[in-house]
Specification:
Helix content: 40-55%
Radius of gyration: 30 Å
Number of strands: 8
Mean pLDDT: 83
Shape: extended
Number of helices: 23
Strand order of the largest sheet: 3-2-5-6
Distance between the termini: 97 Å
Largest sheet: 4 strands, mixed
Structural class: alpha+beta
Number of domains: 3
């Protein structure tokens, strides 16, 4: 019998692999950061890199840091050329998240971001600990708070809470009523009807008629069958109409707004009239316009008495600072070019509004700007433009569209606006069906199917015609 034989051999082969330097990674990731996140990132960079300085604006000159930065000799937008490799490398890089071999403690800029407002659960726990909650209800109350969803509703059955924590149902129910008492009105309800009852009760408006409406008439109410509801509850139309006005004044998601604060959106781009019939495109730059490398440390690097370790440390920090400044220049220049491209392709929108928005894809923008599609995606990620028509996310300008019978290209957003306007002008007693809306668009030369109209309507959170109908 021939014995089995295992051979082990060492072989070598050459593999071509695309890799990004730290600077290339940083350039793309800084490009993807919106203004607020960029400010936080710079705060961290100033903390960890001593060679960086922030030059204050002159006291006697207005701070025009958002104005455009002078052009630099290098092509600041050529990410592919600067990377020294094919376009495809950008597609291999995940969206925001700083990486590239730099110590994690130097990149934790998110940890330096402004703290968000306390969550609903955090605030309720604080309320619970500061209240005179009976000791026997405390554990059950904490479990109920932890089971709340972002709208303030209990996301799991109370029986599951009792079983999972070896609690009796009576204790859990008492704890529920206690949380409902100390929480904002409507929070810790098991469904919308209970939440509305809690809000009415807190306002002293929970009458037997409301109790019956929210208990026996829920299905008819949800399906807008108001005449049938009047017959079932023996209510006059005017009486039911008044009750519905009261219900509409309540909050269907009481937990979402109880402790939230409105976020201030800082536009990354300004595309505004220049007074001469054109538009001025400016990048909102704030602090990044004043980032500089300290001349003190650059001079120190020339000191012949500097130790090898100190020299290596300074060279590394200065190199990183230069990469940061270059990345900021590239971000500003790319955003400015993007804004100028939008002025060229969407000028009718800036002058007349959404109805004149034209189809534009990121692939088309990439071809115009001679950048990769993934670079365009990063450039528009989470960023906002201030325009004569208001502030819009940059992604708003990129969508497909339709060609009208007259050969005119119309963006999806413009079609949605036509649907919204038509519904806004409809007779509330005879609302427009999706089929009717589709026919209206076809009459304008836009072949938009009924199912597409329904999809667009739902995306704008507009109810179906049966639910929009006003009965009295």
């Amino acid at each position: 019998m021939t014995a089995n034989r295992i051979d082990q051999n060492l072989t070598g082969k050459m593999v071509q692999q695309l890799q990004l330097s730290t600077g290339q990674l940083q350039s793309l990731e800084i490009l993807a950061l919106p203004q607020a996140a960029l400010e936080s990132f710079l705060t961290q960079e100033f903390a960890v890199n001593p060679v960086l300085e922030e030059s204050p604006p002159p006291a006697d000159i207005p701070d025009n840091s958002h104005e455009e930065r002078p052009e630099t000799p290098d092509d600041e937008n050529d990410y592919e050329k600067n990377a020294g490799c094919a376009d495809e490398w950008a597609d291999e890089l995940p969206l925001p998240g700083i990486s590239g071999g730099v110590p994690a403690d130097e990149l934790d800029y998110l940890g330096n971001s402004p703290a968000p407002p306390p969550s609903l659960k955090t605030m309720l726990i604080n309320e619970l600990e500061c209240s005179n909650c009976p000791e026997e209800l405390h554990a059950a109350a904490l479990e109920i708070i932890s089971a709340l969803d972002e709208d303030g509703f209990i996301a799991v059955p109370l029986a599951d809470i009792a079983m999972a924590n070896d609690l009796d149902m009576e204790t859990v129910m008492q704890a529920l009523h206690y949380i409902q008492m100390i929480a904002p009105a409507g929070v810790a309800a098991r469904d919308v009807a209970e939440s509305l009852k809690l809000q009415l009760s807190r306002a002293g408006k929970l009458t037997p008629a409301f109790e019956k409406l929210l208990t026996e008439g829920r299905e008819d109410l949800e399906k807008n069958r108001l005449p049938a509801l009047c017959d079932k509850l023996q209510l006059a139309p005017d009486e039911l109409a008044g009750m519905l006005r009261t219900l509409r004044s309540l909050n269907p998601a009481p937990g979402r707004d109880s402790y939230s604060s409105a976020a201030v959106v800082v536009p990354d781009l300004e595309i505004l009239p220049d007074g001469n019939g054109g538009y001025r495109v400016a990048v909102r730059r704030e602090r990044q316009a004043r980032v500089m490398i300290s001349p003190l440390y650059e001079k120190l690097l020339q000191d012949g008495n500097l130790s090898a370790d100190d020299r290596g440390y300074l060279q590394e920090k200065i190199s990183r600072a230069k990469e940061l400044v270059q990345a900021l220049n590239m971000r500003d220049s790319t955003l400015k070019r993007l804004g100028e491209m939008l002025v060229d392709t969407q000028r009718e929108f800036f002058e007349h509004g959404i109805k004149e928005l034209r189809p534009l894809t990121m692939k088309q923008a990439a071809g115009i700007l001679e950048l990769s599609e993934s670079t365009i995606s990063r450039a528009v990620s989470e960023k906002t433009a201030e325009t004569p028509q208001g502030s819009y996310p940059l992604r708003f300008f990129f969508s497909g569209g339709f060609n009208s019978d007259a050969g005119e290209a119309v963006a999806v957003q413009a079609v949605k606006e036509k649907i919204r306007n038509a519904i806004g002008k409809e007779d509330p007693h005879a609302p427009l069906s999706d089929e009717t809306l589709s026919a209206m668009l076809k009459a304008e030369g836009l072949n938009v199917a009924r199912r597409t109209v329904a999809k667009y309507r739902e995306s704008m959170k507009i109810p179906a015609s049966s639910l929009r109908k006003k009965h009295f």
